[in-house]
């Protein structure tokens, strides 16, 4: 079932397009990821969906005509910054949000027992939130967002600053919620996390530049990803390649300097005596960086 359908959403901020004619859907049991640099429109899109800001044009379709009621009843939200009460304990924070959502004490006890098992926060229920690690704080924030059993979760960069183990545990929790039919909209700067999403939207200056599954997006780069085999310092090599072929996106990967181009476009580099390997198996990172760097380089020319 479709939980959210966005059509032609547009919103300006200080005379600049923060969101520019975007269209996408969020389905039950699916994770949609918003990817892009700072200022791409990720947070603004979420704020519009939550009713915190109003677009100049476009339409948002929800399962109920009364959008405010549906959002209050069926949406859980985690902002980018930790927004719980640090001087309250884990259990006191949960109880506070339970009262906000109108849960009875019996309903709270039943829900809290499940959340403690789900988040593994049971041993820390009497610890103040301010004394929790970054990963535990995010688990607590997620638990508070889940108290009223939402059908849709909206998460704004929830794992920023979290250690790798806590990040994995957080995504394990999201995968479990997805398996239970919850729809999830998440923004992240981490391309490794984007691999967990069913649909990825790459935003740049408010526009959707790429949209599809991770496999679909990486598949767009099939036959176009190459690597320069050299012992030269990779950063110096990158600058040299940019001078020889300014139209070719090039970036540092774990295996060296990667290039996004056709074999014909690589001829100036081959003529300069560099040995090129490929084509290589493309990754989601290749689609993202090739698109972003391509935009930047075109704007610079």
From TrEMBL:
InterPro entries: AAA+_ATPase (IPR003593), ABC_transporter-like_ATP-bd (IPR003439), ABC_transporter-like_CS (IPR017871), P-loop_NTPase (IPR027417). Residues 4-230 form the ABC transporter domain. GO terms for molecular function: ATP binding; ATP hydrolysis activity. The keyword Glycoprotein does not apply. Keywords: ATP-binding, Nucleotide-binding. It holds the Pfam family ABC_tran. It comes from the Bacteria. Gene3D superfamilies: P-loop containing nucleotide triphosphate hydrolases. This is ABC transporter related protein. It comes from Winmispira thermophila (strain ATCC 700085 / DSM 6578 / Z-1203).
């Amino acid at each position: 079932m479709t939980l959210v359908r966005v059509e032609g959403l547009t919103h300006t901020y200080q005379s600049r397009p923060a969101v520019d004619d975007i269209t996408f859907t969020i389905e039950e049991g699916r994770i949609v990821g918003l990817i892009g640099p700072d200022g791409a429109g990720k947070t603004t899109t979420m704020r519009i969906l939550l009713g915190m800001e109003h677009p100049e044009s476009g339409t948002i379709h929800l399962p109920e005509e009364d959008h405010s009621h549906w959002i209050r009843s069926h949406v859980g939200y985690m902002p980018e910054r930790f927004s719980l009460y640090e001087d309250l304990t884990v259990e006191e924070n949960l109880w506070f949000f339970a009262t906000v959502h109108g849960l009875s004490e019996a309903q709270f006890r039943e829900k809290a027992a499940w959340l403690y098992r789900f988040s593994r926060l049971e041993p820390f229920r009497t610890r103040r939130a301010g004394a929790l690690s970054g990963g535990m704080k995010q688990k607590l924030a997620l638990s508070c967002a889940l108290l009223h059993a939402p059908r849709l979760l909206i998460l704004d960069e929830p794992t920023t600053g979290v250690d790798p183990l806590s990040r994995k545990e957080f995504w394990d929790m999201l995968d479990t919620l997805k398996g239970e039919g919850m729809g999830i909209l998440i923004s992240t700067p981490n391309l490794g996390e984007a691999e967990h999403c069913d649909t990825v939207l790459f935003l740049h200056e408010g526009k959707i530049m790429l949209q599809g599954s991770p496999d679909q997006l990486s598949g767009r780069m099939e036959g176009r990803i190459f690597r320069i085999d050299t012992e030269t310092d990779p950063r110096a090599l990158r600058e040299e390649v940019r001078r020889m072929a300014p139209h070719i996106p090039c970036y540092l990967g774990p295996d060296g300097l990667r290039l996004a181009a056709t074999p014909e476009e690589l001829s100036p580099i081959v003529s300069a005596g560099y040995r090129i390997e490929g084509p290589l198996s493309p990754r989601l990172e290749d689609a993202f960086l090739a698109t972003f760097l391509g935009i930047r380089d075109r704007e610079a020319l």
